[in-house]
Structures are given as structure tokens and as C-alpha cells.
Write a structure and sequence with these properties.
This protein has 103 residues and is an all-alpha fold. It has a domain of 72 residues. Helix content is 73%, strand content 0%. The radius of gyration is 13 Å and the shape is globular.
Length: 103
Amino acid sequence: MVMKFKEIQTERCMVKKMNKSAFIKELAKATGISEENSMIVNQILEDNFFISKKSKDKIISEIVLHLDVNLDTATNIYNTATKIAKDSIKFKLKHPFKEYKAE
């Protein structure tokens, strides 16, 4: 079942917008996971309201399930992904016409 999810998610994520592409690349760079796994994490985050603290445990358990990583690694991936997304949102609010570049 896990392999089927990866195949479906990979096919759905192949047609991605530029902002998703930048997020996926930054997540892969920051966490050390592959871009394919970053696409899966991105899809998990899009399927859930990741900014809410209530869905944090559900998202982390899905990351553990689909990426086959331990709980600490999944928590690190979740924290890194939310930090990248929040920083990007804050930047866009302050500078609506500039492109976000992660540091």
C-alpha cells in the first residue's frame, strides 16, 4: 500500500507550480531527503491544515508511514517544512512583488 501511495503522489506532483517547486527543493535541501520524498511530504501537508497544532500528530504519523522514517526524523521534517512555509508567507506579506529566496 505504501508503494501505491508513492506512485500516485509522485504522478500528481509532477505537474507542480513554481512556488511548490521552490518549496520542495528547499525542503529537500534543508532536511537531506530526496526531492521525490519532499513531494510526498508536500502532498501530505496540502491534504491537511498543517499550520494548525491539532493536525501536527496526524501529519507526523503520515510522514512516518509513507516515508518509512522514525518519529524523530518525521518531527524534524514537519518542523522544517512548517518553518519554510511560514517564512515564505511572512516574506510575501512584507514584499508582495518579490520572489522568496530561502537563506
